[in-house]
């Protein structure tokens, strides 16, 4: 029996949210872990705008308070500074588990904590979902496919992942999390939703995030060299954040039989050199391109097959690369013209 080790006995429930105003029955109380991060802050904003109560749990390792500062205007928003590696009990209807550093330099800075977040953190949240009867959503990743030998990537492809390279803490951590989600579904009947996210960009990425789109834009705006890793012929498919978050909410609301994994991403595929040229063109920058060594195990190619998302969710991205870049450039332009303090809070 799952409840043999009943957490309710050992884990005092937090009262967070109990002072929310009474909500209509069609609205939910939703936990977003990693809610102060890039994707999480957009998700919190969308859910609050739809009238839901949102509890954001974040350890602020890569997330920023400034990302959620404007959400304080909602009296249905709460923030708890907490690491998901420690258990937590909250009265919630739905859980979106986004907590995990996503940028290679960030997740590689403390690989053991990254793995712990993926595995122990997921276990804690699955326990919570089982205890509260909450539906739970996992932010998985295209990194599940590693350096893929099947192109474009379909959900049925098992991937090509190095178990102990520099990216493994993240790739294998996220793979293990998918296993845990499926086993909680099978063993305890927990309602799960797994999304495999392909490279997503947009406003509220940190200027020092380290991922390619924010790096190139910040470098271009500052007139610094644009750092292409390797010969720049490796490909990625870039999805604008608003499209992705729309897909999250559709998947969460889908019939319970659709557990996922479901790929979400923009199938438009570009080489990293093409991205650099596009950013230089759109910023009007005079930055020059320099080459840096290609990181170990850097995937050669990546593009999602989104047939499942299109058929099951009626979802497809609507923002193309040049429009998404224009909006992201506008964001960084505003940010970089402010003070450094404002940037990093
Ligand atoms: P991000 O680094 O901006 O956000 C991650 C958030 O999680 C941050 O607020 C961070 O402080 C928080 N966090 C990290 N470890 C935590 C822990 N142990 N306990 C509590 N909070 C913790 O990254 P993002 O791009 O917003 O990514 C969000 C999620 O989506 C991640 O799970 C990531 O793996 C996944 N994802 C993102 C992309 C993408 O392109 N953005 C692609 C694939 C998967
Ligand atoms: N990349 C690059 N310059 C940078 C940052 C990244 O050329 O300043 C490359 C990176 O090596 C990879 C691609 O861009 O080939 C996408 O990298 P990112 O870290 O954004 O995402 P991921 O590798 O996780 O897909």
TrEMBL record:
Q: Where in the cell is it found?
A: Cytoplasm
Alphabetically sorted, this entry's keywords are:
Cytoplasm, Decarboxylase, Lyase, NAD
Q: Which GO terms describe its cellular component?
A: cytoplasm
Q: Which residues cross the membrane?
A: none
Top-level lineage group: Bacteria
Q: Where is the NAD-dependent epimerase/dehydratase domain?
A: 30-264
Q: What is its main location?
A: cytoplasm
Q: List the InterPro entries.
A: Epimerase_deHydtase (IPR001509), NAD(P)-bd_dom_sf (IPR036291), UXS-like (IPR044516)
What terms describe the molecular function in GO for this protein?
NAD+ binding; UDP-glucuronate decarboxylase activity
Recorded hits in Gene3D superfamilies, A to Z, give: NAD(P)-binding Rossmann-like Domain
Keyword Electron transport tagged = no
- GO annotation terms (biological process): D-xylose metabolic process; UDP-D-xylose biosynthetic process
Which cofactors are reported in the record for this sequence?
NAD(+)
- Entry's SUPFAM superfamilies? NAD(P)-binding Rossmann-fold domains
| Protein name per UniProt | NAD-dependent epimerase/dehydratase family protein
Q: Which organism's genome codes for this protein? A: Sinorhizobium terangae
